Amino acid sequence: MALPNPALSQIPDSYKFGWHDAEQPRTTFEKGISSEVVAEISRIKDEPKWMTDLRLKAYRHFEARPMPKWGADLTGIDFQDIYYYVTGNSNGAAQSWDDVPDYIRRTYDKLGIPEAEKKYLAGVGGQYDSEVIYHNIREDLEKQGVIFMGTDQALKEHPDLFREYFGTVIPANDNKLAALNTAVWSGGSFIYVPKDVHVELPLQAYFRINTENMGQFERTLIIADEGSSVHYVEGCTAPTYSTASLHSAVVEIIVKKGARVRYTTIQNWSSNVYNLVTKRAVAHEDAVMEWVDGNLGSKVTMKYPSIYLLGERAHGEVLSIAFAGDGQHQDAGGKIIHAAPNTTSLITSKSISKGTGRTSYRGLIKVYPGCERSKSTVRCDALILDDDARSDTYPYMEIDEENVTIGHEATVSKVGSEQLFYLMSRGLSEAEASAMIVNGFIEPIVKELPMEYAVEMNRLIQLQMEGAVG
Amino acid sequence: MTVQAASILDADAIGRISDRFDEPDWLRALRAAWWKRADSTPPPTGQEEEWRRTSLADLPRGAVLLMDVPELETHLPSGAAEDGVILTDLRTAVRDHPELVERYLGQVDGPASHAHFWALAQAAWTGGLFCYVPRGVSVDGTLVARQLLPRADVAFHPVSLVVAEEDSSVTLLTEVVSPDGATGWYGGMADVRAGPSARVRYADLQQLGDGAWRIGAERVVVGQDAVVTTLNAEVGSRITKLGLDVLMTGKGGTSKVLGILAAGDDQKIDINTVQDLAADHTTSDLLYLSALYDRAHASFYGITNVRHGTKQTSSYQECRNLLLSPQAGAEPIPVLEIAANDILRCGHGATAGAIDPTTLFYAQTRGLDADAAERMIVRGFFEQVVSQIVDETIRQRVLAALARRIGADSSDEVAA
Fold this sequence. Notes:
A: alpha/beta, eleven-stranded mixed β-sheet, eight-stranded parallel β-sheet, globular, B: nine-stranded mixed β-sheet, 8 helices
């Protein structure tokens, strides 16, 4: 389902046999983190000294910094009760199909996900023969000079390019969780798009099938050189099962002069996961950066994709959608920093809370002195579906320049009984009617998704409304 | 950074206030109890969300407590006294209406963000206001209480107690004025209660001198079916840090929470509000407008809290900032925390920006010079609040105070 339609049509009949259980040697550390664990991860990966040093430095920052006291309740995290490095299988993935909980399997069935993909999503598939799908795309990209590979691989194959950009957008000491990621990162995607190259198809982590791309501490770095463009899609709409309780990714994006990057995430971790992610992009002169960020799964998510508008006329957009069901807290939003004149930005947030779920929009618009004629609009809408559901809005604004136009607006509403009554009188069940209203509510965001994602997203919302997920 | 105890006061000094005013035992005990609270409630450290934007490092903690407070100037419309309405200096009220004052004074906590300063004022007040409107009494006309401070270089922690009993109706304006020049500490606190079905209009006009630190708080309780409008007009001071709680505790209560800020020079105004929708069918709408000149900076951190289990509440928060100089700044942060789904309406809006150049140009093509055009546009901007001030006396006083910052207009009948 997460495959684009043209690719689907290329799947051979033997697809379901494409799996092979990759019996790889496993290196498993004891639970817990220390500078020895960090150094050992780097040693096993055979990394250059600068990376080992950076990891150790980051670990010291991680240790020194307190846990954030704002936002969601993070007291359930025990950093010494976590495996920081597992090879041979996807980090945090189930060991076999039998370990995958029934509710996740049922959801896959309801979404009609093919057998092989189910296993892949559950993390038990190992590698499957993706050559047919992926090979053509990869050849095209290579001809254009696009680099698209695992972050670990990129460190080995493109050491200079890697070192020039790694950790420049999100430094090792940025925040406690980013420091942790820098210390123990593994997996993730590395993308370099050369000058004036436009990557037409959305690049999906899904294509770059390997066991590490849904890693617990993945690290993604995207560099769009001048005048280029790329759309990267991370994750899948279908629930992603993980036995690990903490996922802490870092994503850095550099959008150079006149380039354009869109980064789409559909986060649907299983409901035992703390998902604490740092995502940041810098946009230079005339560049455009867009985050499309959907959060459906996890127990707790704290994620605020941010954009630093560093060059004149740079434009940043964050489209954020959050759905919190029973016991979930989605603390999401976006940050835009206007650091050059004539920069513009737009944040649109749609959040839905259901059952005992809680959504929080948390955002920042900052305008530095001298950033004349900056314009920013923030629009937040929330839908509260049940008596015990909760919705918060924390829209921070720091405006230190006079000649700007900054606005924020938010509304909160419930599904109107009249709307429901009308739809039910046309023969829809209450769940179907609610789902239809919710789908209408998030439509402005869903229409920005690649088609196959949009279809799946709508179906998923419907399942969640029926209480059929989780 | 941790700040030390917030003043040079101690338990003995609090006792000497009681000695000086020859106070009854209950008040002596009340002050002592609040002093303990002040002492055990640490002052803000700057880590608190509400205190991140205002540093207390330079608060003049050593300022001497003002003991010889001039009597409050009060104006009570004729006939009101006969109906049992009381409007007087708090010290006078302790003497003349001890039972009433004992029943209401110092009985509640103020806004949590200002807990230390609230306790300090309850312990160390040397002046203040007592306003009481008995059950069923409607006062025609405007009650006015004005506090003139003789000097700036002092600490003064007055307490205003405003009680409107069930079914009463009252309009009250309080004003404070102090001289420019020296640095001082004004820690005025207000405790406003509107009983069931009461109608209260309460306006506070702050015109402190340019060295004043205003660290104030206001707690407004809106009873069942009561209708309350509050207005904070902040014109003076060097630093203003105001905490305002509007507690919608009675079913069907309505509140309008208005604010006007006109600031220039190096003024820093930081307001935090809580609209607590704790009962069914309550309505609370907030509108704060700031016009910021020179290097002035306004922060607004407001929370709309819709409590779990409440039904059919309705609320809005709006904060607009007009930036009139390249060095002016604003941080509007309207927060919503909503734990109920059966809401009628809940939303917020915030803006910050300069005057639209085309508007300015248009005004100039009609023959106004740039300054006059700017004045007109600022007045127009404030009109959104001013038009909601129904009481003529209050509107005139507020406009006159604003004129000092935004400039008088020739067509303005209040300038005189």
